[in-house]
Design brief:
There is one protein chain. The chain has 156 residues and is mainly alpha-helical. The chain has a domain of 90 residues. Helix content is 51%, strand content 6%. β3 and β4 form a beta hairpin. α1 packs antiparallel against α2.
């Protein structure tokens, strides 16, 4: 009977994990949709500028695209903010060198080997359990595991 109780508890925990992951995916998709909308708005502005240049090619000195460029600047700022929010929702950071996504508290990028500065939210005061990663395949593993279930490397 204890087996079935343990199985029920495990299934409930896994169900909760799946629900949380589904919520994360939905949020990332929502943010990516907003990024797409911003990029589309930027493309429209680029086309407007091109049209203005084409129409005023006889006298480009009278061309005033300052307002369009300011709109583009604000769109780029919003895209950067949304991309940062996507990383936050996914629980990862981005390598400053190669732009790879880096999970957890890795000190070096697993893609290019560049040092990764500690994230601002990686403070000891938080009650967030530390994530453990395999030193060989860099996948997240449970803290009590002795061997990596993905590549077999000894963890302890």
């Amino acid at each position: 009977m204890a087996f079935f109780e343990n199985l029920g508890g495990t299934l409930a925990a896994k169900g909760k994990d799946v629900a949380e992951k589904a919520k994360e995916i939905a949020e990332v998709n929502r943010l990516n949709g907003q990024i797409h909308t911003q990029k589309h708005a930027a493309e429209k502005i680029y086309m407007e500028i091109g049209k203005m240049v084409s129409e005023q090619r006889e006298d480009l000195s009278s061309l005033n695209v300052t307002e369009h460029l300011e709109k583009l600047d604000s769109i780029q700022v919003e895209i950067a903010r949304l991309q940062k929010e996507v990383l936050r929702v996914k629980g990862v950071r981005q390598c400053e060198n190669c732009k790879a996504e880096i999970g957890g508290n890795m000190a070096f990028c697993p893609e290019c080997g560049s040092p990764v500065p500690a994230a601002e939210e990686d403070t000891p005061e938080q009650d967030v359990p530390a994530r453990i990663y395999c030193p060989d395949c860099h996948r997240e593993v449970e803290p009590d595991m002795v061997l990596c279930p993905f590549c077999g490397v000894k963890l302890k």
